[in-house]
Amino acid sequence: MDYQNRAGSKFGGGGVASQSATNADRRERLRKLALETIDLDKDPYFFKNHVGSFECRLCLTVHQNDGSYLAHTQGRKHQTNLARRAAKDAQLGKKQEEGYTGANAVQVKKNIVKIGRPGYSITKTRDPITRQDGLLFSLQVPEIAQDVEPKIRFMSAYEQKVEDPPDKAFQYLLVAAEPYETCGFKIQARDIDKREEKFWTWFDGDSKTFWVQINFKTEREERYSGVPGLAPLRGR
């Protein structure tokens, strides 16, 4: 570091570096050190988000450039988390893959860059015989990854982190289809009739369209669910 031409210093002498300059020099040295040992293309914790910043998925930190991320990998926090992760995997009987060092010591599934939300439509339905209310979801996923089929799950209002406070009158239907972002549909917190003919999913590989049909239980089935002899749950 050049300490000349600083306030209070003599010509040819070393001035007092500011705290910010010292930190900048330290980050640069750490970045150069990391470049010698880390290949970002093989780093399972390195992730570039949709706004162009870089994230460390191990420490849950955000960095403005790759140099800042590289310096972070040489810091105490990242190294400590690496050691903890390795110890946990060792305890679970996992073996580290040969040829990986530093930030690559523990290999995990690499995050896939999301490309946005798929197009979708929702249609209200009603069973003509049982008069059950239902919903038919149709999602268009033309860029879905090869050999990947969409998956769904139901999530309660207390599991989500978007609405605070959570509303127990609603639940969420999640649909995941890499590389698209996971879609969440807010629906009534009513019991779902999960009999085969009432609840089904179907993925059309030709048109890249995913269908989800759900039907809510009738008011009688919800009220007397589990009561012996009343509103038996057929198909279970």
UniProtKB/TrEMBL annotation:
GO molecular function, one term: nucleic acid binding
Domain Matrin-type, chain residue ranges per copy: 54-84
GO biological process: spliceosomal complex assembly
Annotated spans, Disordered: 1-25
Protein name according to UniProt: Matrin-type domain-containing protein
Residues of the signal peptide: none
Any matching Pfam family: SF3A2
InterPro entries: Matrin/U1-C_Znf_C2H2, Matrin/U1-like-C_Znf_C2H2, SF3A2, SF3A2_dom, Znf_C2H2_type
Keywords from the named record: Metal-binding, mRNA processing, mRNA splicing, Nucleus, Spliceosome, Zinc, Zinc-finger
PROSITE patterns: ZF_MATRIN (PS50171)
Family as reported in the entry's similarity comment: Belongs to the SF3A2 family.
Gene3D superfamilies referenced in this protein's UniProt entry, alphabetically: 2.60.40.2690
One GO CC annotation: U2-type prespliceosome
Places the protein is found: Nucleus
Organism per entry: Zasmidium cellare ATCC 36951
Keyword ATP-binding: no
